[in-house]
User: Fold these one by one.
Assistant:
Number 1:
Amino acid sequence: MQEQSSLLVANAAKFQKWFNVTVKESTEVVAIDRAAKKITARDVNNGQESVHPYDYLVLSPGGHAIRPPLPGADLPGIFVVKTIPDANAIKAWITEKGAKSAVVVGGGFIGLEVLENLVHRGLKCSLVEMLPQVMPPYDPEVVEPVHDRLRAAGVELHLGDGVSGFEAGPAGSAALLAVKTQSGKTHAADLVVLAIGVRPETTLARQAGLELGSRGGIKVDERMRTSDSAIFAVGDVAEVKDFVTGEQTLIPLAGPANRQGRIVADVISGNEPSRFRGSQGTSVVGLFGLTLAATGASEKTLRRLGRTFRKVYLHINNHAGYYPGAKQIDIKLLFDPTDGRVLGMQAVGEEGVEKRVDVVAMAIQKGGTVFDLEEAELCYAPQYGSAKDPVNMVGMVAANVLRNQHPLTSWDELDLQALTADPGCVLVDVREPPELDKVGKVESAVNMPLSSLRQQLAKLQDKDKKYYVYCQVGLRGYIATRQFLQAGFDAVNVSGGYKSFQQQLQEQQRPAKL
Amino acid sequence: MQEQSSLLVANAAKFQKWFNVTVKESTEVVAIDRAAKKITARDVNNGQESVHPYDYLVLSPGGHAIRPPLPGADLPGIFVVKTIPDANAIKAWITEKGAKSAVVVGGGFIGLEVLENLVHRGLKCSLVEMLPQVMPPYDPEVVEPVHDRLRAAGVELHLGDGVSGFEAGPAGSAALLAVKTQSGKTHAADLVVLAIGVRPETTLARQAGLELGSRGGIKVDERMRTSDSAIFAVGDVAEVKDFVTGEQTLIPLAGPANRQGRIVADVISGNEPSRFRGSQGTSVVGLFGLTLAATGASEKTLRRLGRTFRKVYLHINNHAGYYPGAKQIDIKLLFDPTDGRVLGMQAVGEEGVEKRVDVVAMAIQKGGTVFDLEEAELCYAPQYGSAKDPVNMVGMVAANVLRNQHPLTSWDELDLQALTADPGCVLVDVREPPELDKVGKVESAVNMPLSSLRQQLAKLQDKDKKYYVYCQVGLRGYIATRQFLQAGFDAVNVSGGYKSFQQQLQEQQRPAKL
């Protein structure tokens, strides 16, 4: 096992030697006197206070892990995870109590990473999440493979159910703690980890009368200056602009925080400073061999803001299928229907996921469109990608839609019940019969395999009907839809095919959001 | 072992069923009658000729592997590799003759991939390359790790030496063939593979009087139209514009070829066609666990064209160093010194290499600058990257140069002999003594370790001297240079540190280009 100290990127001694910067450890700033430009600091070991003048003050207190005001939330064995001591406390509890089971509350980045580690540690784990999905910043159908992967790893998922309180396990019971949920359930465990989010640590800023933003973070301008021009705020505590939507947001991620620090340093040292252009919310999480990543806006964000958008789904190999070891990536792309500007992408899979998200992150940064994705010239050798990379393919699908070259819909836009009842509509599955036998099909669909579709179309009479066409992932649906159209039929391809249908179905079958 | 047929992306039957397109196999087009808009085709099995009219004609004959007109080049056991039958012929030769050794001529993409496969097959391999480096499109110092990796895999490298001819191994000799080189050497082997490049297959186009470009490919416009507006050319046979430099070029890669095919289809079918924006030459090759990738212009291309540019080197972990398994990536970034526009990037390493090149490929496509790289918001979790991703870091280093915030030079810009002789110059190694003992230092350098540099600078008198500062990879050189500057000394950081020095040194020690 590696030394714990190797987790620390820097320490006080290095700051002194490298940068001639004195780091006062174990020292809490308790007050800011803005008029006098002084701070009061307290030594946390001996309580002694000291006053320090400043020309500029940079606030970087981060956020604090939320501990909800619920009955029993302070019981021994209930932990939050933010610092190395937090992690040590959990490890010590597991060892001392011989803990065999854990409930993690909250299915965001931290909750999932904690889950994976507890599973590796050998604990029987459950996840309780108030929302009907894990990873709240992502769209629900996108995270279905994450749900599957968690279940496959033995994690019990309790989605769409909030925690109502905690109790110590009754004397003689097998578990040390009991987690009560709003639906009336009880989940017993020897350890509870709360991972329900972070809140910007604005205590000091509020005491000093600094302006806060609409999301509860410290309000700053593009140079990270607060409402007091001598005071800056950076990192999780600062409220920033969403680069894609323009709305105020809190992005507690390390990349933007680093960038903000650099901007403030430039302002203070009189260099020509750049402006913080806002954050795209580019994020990634890995668990149990799966990678989930995104950049830009999600569909739910766009819906909440009432923005118009279009979307396409793609399920595609990370590299050429003829090279061994190709893994499928599920991609969802959101774009502006007027000019094709990329608004966001989410992807999940085992290999090459965050690479595609990174490329699209750069495209979004530069105001790129789906036409740019279509034209992207990316590294291709069969072990790395395809001559038409997933980024190209998702761009091509979207560009076909925008150019009105290909009618496309998605499962959530279809009312399957109404469609089935409507004699003017036909749902067509164009996969080959052995595939249907193996993975199933949409109940009301008729099977017209692509391999003989042209002959069947030559005999088909119903030119007044509308044909909704799907295959496994969308490619053959595309080919089939074109054959329908060329033969004079009205047809539309269902984006993402049966694979997307399954993910959508799973999502609909989950309990609704409370 | 997988079926060989799985290597084929499509076949005639699929084209017929899916697209209603008839593929005439084993049929060679032998003449184009442009006036009559007819082609003459010959059945290669029975020699029978047939004439076919066309409205539009698309030429996509690709290139042919070059077999140099050298003595003995047609001897049995000497192969080129372009098609699956070529590969089968090599395998058959190895089996039938019990071949134990091979010489590969040419160290480009194909040559290296062939080498890796022959080594895996158990053959003792040598590489003969006329240039003093493998992978000619790349800059020489960038491919040094590839040379190291090839040698480590047991490949004998003969760089800077062209082949002059081939002979059958004399009766009774251990090897079946002998490769003679221009320097007078003889390399014996049981198998020779020629991988010295491809040439556009323009025979038919020339016969038909179509205009060729300056590089010998078929000349086309942005819609891939040849000098005859009814005839298009796509793929390796077409000459295209270099997206970065604007010059004519041949890019025999699959990605651009795919894109070109789509453009032609749009033109012919009357859709609103896009324009081929040119090729960035984005490329990747993997061998023996190493990945080498690039996008945009190389330094040698920029020098050949007389363009002004600046460059920075970076040797950086692919992901956070505190997460196990981080691997170093060597990066070279070229950019415009006036506006910071990214001109090209080359990178080599074991993990995460082509991801960074893909991101920069998108940046180049969108006219991005080093400031955009600096600000890129990419996926970060410790197993995927760093809060400051390598793309950010190389952007920051370059932006520091452009903003005149940090004096930077590179080893090839320094005349070490003159610098050592000049009493006004000091070369300073700021690494700690144990590192120098372990990996060595530049002979004439004085050691002033960063850990005590501030104290040493306080005592240092020579304010008139110029200090050339380096560390292992550049980061501490940066910190040290800033300390020199703040203390009132004239100092400059040497990009890429000792790591780049070693790569530059290896390059200089190779035989010169013939």
Note: Chain B has a mean pLDDT of 94.
Number 2:
Amino acid sequence: MEDSKAPVSEHGGETSKAAVLGVAASSGSRRAATRGLAVLDLILRFVAVIASVGSAIAMGTTNQTLPFFTQFLRFKAQYSDLPTLTFFVVVNSIVAAYLVLSIPLSIVHVMASRAKYSRLVLVFFDAAMLALVTAAASAAAAVVYLAHKGNARANWFAICQQFDSFCERISGSLIGSFAAMALLLLLILLSAAALARS
Amino acid sequence: MEDSKAPVSEHGGETSKAAVLGVAASSGSRRAATRGLAVLDLILRFVAVIASVGSAIAMGTTNQTLPFFTQFLRFKAQYSDLPTLTFFVVVNSIVAAYLVLSIPLSIVHVMASRAKYSRLVLVFFDAAMLALVTAAASAAAAVVYLAHKGNARANWFAICQQFDSFCERISGSLIGSFAAMALLLLLILLSAAALARS
């Protein structure tokens, strides 16, 4: 008999064999679905890298010099004038670096769809990076809001009235960071779904 | 025979029964460990509720009136003067409400330790709330930093030099929110670990 090495009792061979085949078929289609999730995970990671790198570059390269100056002062604005925007550039670079490093692990998950503990590690670090990029994006958004609107009660002046193109640039660079945030949220959901399926 | 209703073939009863008992024993100890994770999850949720409610109350009830005033102005500071701090109070209330609503589901997980899809829902909403509370806490932190240090390049004045007790209070109220953030990060890890074990 061919299936004598299988861990089913030899006497009930016919029914057991059918049951084993059924389990194999259903776990096969399950594995294919989990592999689909892993491929989607890989694609989203690439998009998130582009979003956060784009965000860091857009913020890091912005500066504006006003066309008038006094004897002592040149009116020049760049991201490093505001510590929060420096934090934004640093964090987006860190998150992009993490995402690049996580891509090999994501490729492993496409091959080995039953991996559990490496997925668990990814969920944790994805959540930590979600917190980090959200912190940077919203702190920068709070400062950009102040730059646009100012605050009458605190006597903070709306600097965007002078530095208009600088303000447009720093507002735009927030988009990539918020996109990376949404993608990381999706990545956590995908990893958790893969864990629930395995 | 007692186990005739069980889905094992009757002929190989002895070996199959032993195998089933072995599986049951190992899944029993596994289930106990998963239940331990679920109890920890429940406790952390209670702590996170206290942290975020405390944070919202500390920020919401703060105000300071300076002991001098002119004919037209009274110098008074409260959280609603800065939109970012209003956002902070609103988000902390929302997160606290979500955490309270999630407690019944967490209790269900202590009983039914094999629940998968409800854990998946919790992971997703926990991650969304993590993003929300991080956004509020770090936007408020950015504004509190400006209130303390000001910014010479943007001509933003450090209002904490006048409103000292107001500033101490709003700085302190950030702690609860950052604690809630760390707890939510742990809760995501716990749910993912429970999913990996089930």
Note: Residues 63 and 78 of chain A are 4 Å apart (CA to CA).
Number 3:
Amino acid sequence: MRIGVLTSGGDCPGLNAVIRSVVHRAVVDHGDEVIGFHDGWRGLLECDYRPLDLDAVSGILARGGTILGSSRVQPAHLRGGVETARGHVADLGLDAIIPIGGEGTLKAAHLLSEAGLPIVGVPKTIDNDIASTDVTFGFDTAVGVATEALDRLKTTAESHQRVLIVEVMGRHTGWIALHSGMAAGAHAIVVPERPFDIGELTELVGKRFSAGKKFAIVVVAEGAKPREGSMEFNVGKKDQYGHERFAGVANQLAIELEERLGKEARPVILGHVQRGGTPTAYDRVLATRFGWHAVEAAHHGRFGMLTALRGTDIVMVPLADAVAELKTVPAQRYEEAECVL
Amino acid sequence: MRIGVLTSGGDCPGLNAVIRSVVHRAVVDHGDEVIGFHDGWRGLLECDYRPLDLDAVSGILARGGTILGSSRVQPAHLRGGVETARGHVADLGLDAIIPIGGEGTLKAAHLLSEAGLPIVGVPKTIDNDIASTDVTFGFDTAVGVATEALDRLKTTAESHQRVLIVEVMGRHTGWIALHSGMAAGAHAIVVPERPFDIGELTELVGKRFSAGKKFAIVVVAEGAKPREGSMEFNVGKKDQYGHERFAGVANQLAIELEERLGKEARPVILGHVQRGGTPTAYDRVLATRFGWHAVEAAHHGRFGMLTALRGTDIVMVPLADAVAELKTVPAQRYEEAECVL
Amino acid sequence: MRIGVLTSGGDCPGLNAVIRSVVHRAVVDHGDEVIGFHDGWRGLLECDYRPLDLDAVSGILARGGTILGSSRVQPAHLRGGVETARGHVADLGLDAIIPIGGEGTLKAAHLLSEAGLPIVGVPKTIDNDIASTDVTFGFDTAVGVATEALDRLKTTAESHQRVLIVEVMGRHTGWIALHSGMAAGAHAIVVPERPFDIGELTELVGKRFSAGKKFAIVVVAEGAKPREGSMEFNVGKKDQYGHERFAGVANQLAIELEERLGKEARPVILGHVQRGGTPTAYDRVLATRFGWHAVEAAHHGRFGMLTALRGTDIVMVPLADAVAELKTVPAQRYEEAECVL
Amino acid sequence: MRIGVLTSGGDCPGLNAVIRSVVHRAVVDHGDEVIGFHDGWRGLLECDYRPLDLDAVSGILARGGTILGSSRVQPAHLRGGVETARGHVADLGLDAIIPIGGEGTLKAAHLLSEAGLPIVGVPKTIDNDIASTDVTFGFDTAVGVATEALDRLKTTAESHQRVLIVEVMGRHTGWIALHSGMAAGAHAIVVPERPFDIGELTELVGKRFSAGKKFAIVVVAEGAKPREGSMEFNVGKKDQYGHERFAGVANQLAIELEERLGKEARPVILGHVQRGGTPTAYDRVLATRFGWHAVEAAHHGRFGMLTALRGTDIVMVPLADAVAELKTVPAQRYEEAECVL
């Protein structure tokens, strides 16, 4: 068999582990040939690739980033993108393409699959918001990094007698906020799935101070928003330079809580540090298993499918299901977290 | 409600997180009273305990060990143990007992439950070998510690052009060996579930050297054994001081591989470092959820049950099932690992 | 002897290690009595303290923060502060006071010492900018945290083909920027000691892209400023809410470099995570030695002095010297760093 | 200039950082040519080398091991070794050779230097026992790894109510034992510089148990020995297989303390994990500075010298001084540590 692999979208710890695993399983166990496209779909559309043998993937298991590069190019966005891709797949004699990517990438994969290309997808997102799979690789690393930061911030908040509003990743879902907040013992967790009431939040944090505690940690997902009418909120409001970047939710919450509580409140934005660097053991194992099963699926002709974790098993699910809707934090999980706030 | 909690058996990262979660859920959300028995079942049998309120569990989430202490005392081993326990439960007016422990502890819990005591178990083992639950807390931390050690050992093995035989925990099952070996890119993984043939193992490692590589890492679970007749093997053979402790599998494998390969081979025994210290975020979240659900189960009268992870859900399963047999590494998981050796 | 100890100013990993060491050396080896004032100088001024015995400092060595609390209260700022302090020292029968703190604290210590109080200072700052000592505890931890973040950010910058401007602590000096930038292999390091020319900086980063590299990491100390006339710069300019906090140097540099380079540039502000949490082994050892020697100095009547590291020795230096001027990054150190940019 | 660099002896975190720094300083700032010999002195003796340009050292700063390989070959041990080396230096037109290594390597460097070869040495040892320099790179990483292990072992020792005897590296000196023991709050530290009296050690540990504590951690350097007549001690005694490896000091201490204290005692041997893997920020900075200054020394014709840290400065010291004697733990440092045991 001849297999093409590519990584697309934002950085995510574990990408290299998938690539390595695909190459090992395909080359060693099946005698396949593997090529890697550069910079995601761009490489496929421009026929920019290189062969991947065992040496090419030696030593990359624990490394962050992706040796193939990435981009946000999507075939559907380019006129004739699908046809170009189909042509290159034929020219290169590819029997399978394994795109590793997030929601956008999987939608593109689904589109190409519908158009008849032999696609086996591997889901990738630190946000953990892809339906059909219990967990995605990269999430555990992101939660680990956020938790370690929160562990450190706790002593500082305590020493300085402050409220710290810590913004973690999660534009549409609150998984990282939920898990890192639970793991670090945050005193409030704010997620996009439950628009917050600024009054209630103030009360929750205020209760801690009334009980004699001298600090509080609030974890907030970057995509969290106030309940309508709860407070003025400037989504993407521009700063003095015309950039949107300084008006995030943590900044606005810090200002609001400081005024309402009469306690010093400071925003901390963890940012990109959550999505780079060496993956945790958990993510390396999951990524390796995904790579293995993607090759198996290709060999069994199970195209139009996606690798997914269900319990302790890796199963194949239709790409169509995976992109149908986001996996959000269910009420029950939020309730579990609340008890220890 | 009045709830007694205890921790029993060996150290395991996440014990304190369970205790804290039990207290939070019970006290804050249900208005319960919680007491903690000292040193596992010993505390129950000798009525040695202390009240646990929110202050008592403040700041313990990320701490290793157990604030309640532990022991290997088992009620069934003591004459009249069950009756004594029953008497103290009555005297103390306990409505529920939540023992947190491994296989032995859960067997004792099952016994007491059969004898009519209101027990809700929480499984605990870094070995991950308890059936009925996908994962146990402590396992992720153990794998993380072992993987970090393996990451470090790799550069040393390479610089010194050696074979390193790294012994990880796992007396009966190879879960830690499998996961840390996969995560760190070991070149051979030896687990108790598959007695090894020393000839095959030598060949596998030898192939690396033939291919021009200058070092190899073999991960071996402490409970691994050779296939019968494959090599002389001294289970628990005594050393010159009359102690069994120096004749472990890594030591014997190092000697054997060195002779057969003609390459320097050294044993490294990771030991207790895998079972202590601060838990990973994964383990803190899982432990916290177990504690929450154990309290819920008690309030719903679901005694004789055990908290368990199934996929992303916490479910209650009969204690009888949990102790029926060990969860071993299935052949499929081992095959997945092999492709990247 | 009767010794009072206090911690003052911002959080700094190693504070608890000093407190523990003071208590151990004083109580165990000298049979002294030790009391700890709450919240820095406030505790002394308001006679708010507690006795510190061995149990009180058990288990705190590796913990961030300070068990005594801290504040920014300075005796000189309060009318009659010095007299009040003197009175309480007499009332409590204290033979020595050991304040642990940064520049402001040491100035206050110097003042009280001049006024005749028996003071032995211990320097504390993550910024490493106190003259008279080679290193201060907390600095190594801060550099370690920043370096780990930079290691992670590198793969993300590479995957996203971006310039990342990473702001680290250092209001007046660039020690953290210099060391973390060198340790992580940053491509430019910007420190307060050398106002930057935005043109030169653009050129330096631009050369990387011309050479075919796809990303760059710029480490910048929070106190860095452009050379006069080099670019518009808004020190502490207010944001739309009237707060100064969003107009830091990393934000402004990101905007400027993006425009000049035509490459996506993003600011990352590491913030408080650098000053909290468990200290590195290096900082624990240094802090422990400072505590030991502070007690020795007290017993030898060496008041008005400060513990300091010189090479591998702990020496005592006059408080007057320590507060005379900041220790800045010398040109030679900056030149060493440049070669690997 | 044409410079040859080589790494010799055991693995040590920071080797790659030195190599990278030598290449950057030499190539970028001086326009030199650099070659790297493979496997230490062997590469020089067999003229086995490769050119090192900026690409060759890209991405290696944070990596453990050495890209050049290492060996324990010493020129003086080979007949005609010095002459062979001299011949190759002439043939290759080398103006300077920078060997990076430990005691043995520096002795060889001294020998070659005496024979007229243009040598600038860089000291390397995790043991920190080279005189003339305050610290060697690799030491901080080793101490960090040992401290992290000790932090974890503490909770396990406590839960299991045991004495743990933790053996760390240090064949001739106790620096790692001293620093990791102080950093982790060990209850006894045993170093080669002070032969231990088993009776006194038993008493010291026993006092903890008498005081109601339930566990103890003893850190022991691998080269520690009992005071003569204090206990039977089998240096390098063979095990049942004729190997010396199982009769280390931790094992013998565990047996002895268990018998004398009547408490369970277990040995833990940290081993190679201390000398591999990614260096700490501290070690990366020190290694980078050493590389920079080695190139400067070569350009100033300062041959027969060694880079050394003195306070915060890098200075050059004669190779002769560096190899004259080991730097041992002075009594004063040991006394400082004792107060917190």
Note: The first strand of chain D starts at residue 2 and ends at 7.
